[in-house]
Specification:
335 residues; alpha/beta; Rossmann fold; Dihydrodipicolinate Reductase, domain 2; 6-stranded parallel beta sheet; 34% helix
């Protein structure tokens, strides 16, 4: 079995989530971890057994021991880090979103399309067992034709400075919306064709609107919304509901269950005809980072297209960029 040498760039919240789920796997070898805060990089290296660490990725980007670069940094750095990784012959697992604006996103997309190396963008819900279960139920006609998708994910923040830094890069509808716009297109097999929405700055010192509600129409007639906010005053909210002509499916993550959390996520299915409910327990890891990197390794070894493909990634990204524009301008945009 080949062991893949990993360079992790970014030892913050999401970078740590990546490495803690993969460092002990049989086909993974952590070569180096990098962070602009070298003390944080040293701590991460010590905790997860990295062979080296530093504050500058350039010291490791051309290391022949490195096969895969994990980019877990702020959005504005994704494109230049991708460019350098590919130039040095490395495969890439890059956090979402691919960019904070259309021009950089388009360049990212074109680089991936023309590269001989494999690139996977971290739309983690593609690797989540609960979402894959819901996708299978919808495809099997469990709730009839899917008509409405209600998705909300708002955070009552306790570290405002961290979220302010995220808002400097991009808005909630782009940063988190890429996940759920992708889910909407994945579950329906359709494309988002129209976006609109509303937004506001809840904190005076927020760099941009930190509450957004985007509405979408898909080209098969399905509609949906995605509500997201990061604020000191907004209540945390998590809604995942998929409504069809014969019923609905609701997802409750295990940490949000009132009881029986040890059973995993709860999928509730309501059938209209007999007014009955059915429940499924799914032992699902919310961010299955190992499943994600194994998908990239399968792309490398077997030439599989990956999930999502870069075309699917860019489609969801472009829809969020246009939704952000629609919210800012107070208009409806057809895609």
């Amino acid at each position: 079995m080949k062991k893949y040498g990993i360079l992790l760039i970014g030892c913050g919240h999401i970078g740590t989530q990546h490495i803690e789920d993969i460092y002990y796997r049989d086909n993974i070898d952590i070569i180096a971890v990098v962070d602009t805060n070298e003390e944080k990089a040293a701590l991460t290296a010590s905790k997860y057994g990295a062979k080296d660490y530093g504050a500058d990725y350039k010291a490791f980007i051309n290391d022949p021991r490195v096969d895969i670069v994990i980019i877990a940094t702020y959005t504005a750095t994704h494109l230049p880090l991708l460019r350098e990784s590919l130039a040095n012959g490395k495969h890439v697992l890059c956090e979402k979103p691919i960019a904070g604006n259309y021009e950089d996103g388009k360049e990212f997309y074109e680089l991936v399309k023309s590269a001989s190396q494999k690139v996977l963008v971290a739309l983690i819900l593609r690797h989540n067992k609960s979402y894959n279960t819901i996708k299978s139920l919808i495809d099997a006609g469990e709730i009839g034709e899917l008509k409405v998708m209600r998705i909300a994910q708002s955070h009552h923040v306790t570290d405002w400075e961290r979220h302010k830094a995220l808002l400097e890069d991009t808005s909630p509808v782009v940063d988190c919306g890429v996940h759920y716009f992708d889910v909407m297109q994945w579950f329906t097999g359709a494309k988002i064709c129209e976006v609109s929405g509303i937004g506001n700055k809840v904190e005076e010192d927020s760099p941009r609107a930190n509450y957004t509600l985007a509405t979408v129409k898909l080209n098969n007639g399905c509609i949906g919304y995605f509500e997201a906010g990061w604020s000191n005053t907004i209540a945390s909210l998590n809604v995942k509901e998929f409504i069809g002509t014969k019923g609905r499916i609701t997802l409750t993550l295990k940490d949000l269950r009132y009881s029986d959390r040890e059973e995993g996520d709860l999928i509730s299915i309501y059938h209209r005809d007999n007014r009955e409910y059915k429940t499924l327990n799914v032992d699902s890891e919310y961010k299955d980072m190992n499943a994600q990197i194994q998908t990239l390794i399968d792309m490398i070894e077997n030439g599989t297209p990956g999930s999502p493909t870069i075309d699917e990634v860019f489609s969801a990204f472009y829809a969020t960029i246009k939704a952000d524009e629609a919210i800012e301008k107070g208009t409806v945009i057809k895609i």
